[in-house]
Amino acid sequence: MTAQFRVIIALLYLLAATACSPTHYVSMEKLRKSLPAKPVVAGFDIDDTVLFSSPGFHYALTNHDGFDGTNRYGDKPLESKAFWNDMNGQFDKFSLPKKSGKALVRMHADRGDTIIFITARDSSQVSIVPQILMQTFGIATPEVIFTCNQSKAPSIVANHITIYYGDSDSDITAAQKANARPIRVLRPPLSNNPYSYNEVGKLGEEVLRGSAE
What we know:
The chain is an alpha/beta fold. Helices cover 37% and strands 15% of the residues.
C-alpha cells in the first residue's frame, strides 16, 4: 500500500466519522442544570413518555370479543371511535407510570414550571386521562390537549412551550418546528408501538439517558 493510498483511506475514515455524529445523551441532573432560572412551560407527550399505556392498546389490537370472535373494534381498531372512548375512558386504569416520567414531572413541578400534556390520541366523550395524571404525578389540575393525530406544533406554539418531551420522531420534529427544545424519551422495551421511532438522536435531539423505565 503506497503512502498516498494510505492518506486517502485515512481521509475517508475521517469524513465518515465526521458525518456520523454521536448521539447526544443527557442525564436528568445535567438537564435540570441546563434549564433557565425562571419558570418555563414544559410540554409532555403521554404514551410511552410518562405512561406505559401499551396494555390498553394491546387489547385493542388483539381482542376477539366482537361478533363471532372478531375484533370488537373492527379491522382498524386504532381508527375506531369506540376504542378511543374505551382507552381514554377506562383503559388508562391499567397504564403504568414510568419512573423517568415521574422524575421529570416532579423536577419541573419543583421548579414551579407550568406543565402541559399534549397527546396525539383522539378525543372522546369521557376521559379519565386528567384524573390518572393527577393521581400519578400529583398535579392538581392537569391540562391535557388531544390533537387527534394532527401535528403538535401548533399547540406547542400556542401554549408557549419551550421544552417538549416525547418518544416519537413526530414529537421531536413538532418541537423543532415550534422552536421548542426537543428531548427524546426512550420507549419502554415492552412497548407495542412500532411507529415513528427511528434511531434515537438521528434528528439532532437530546436523548434522556435511562428514560426507558
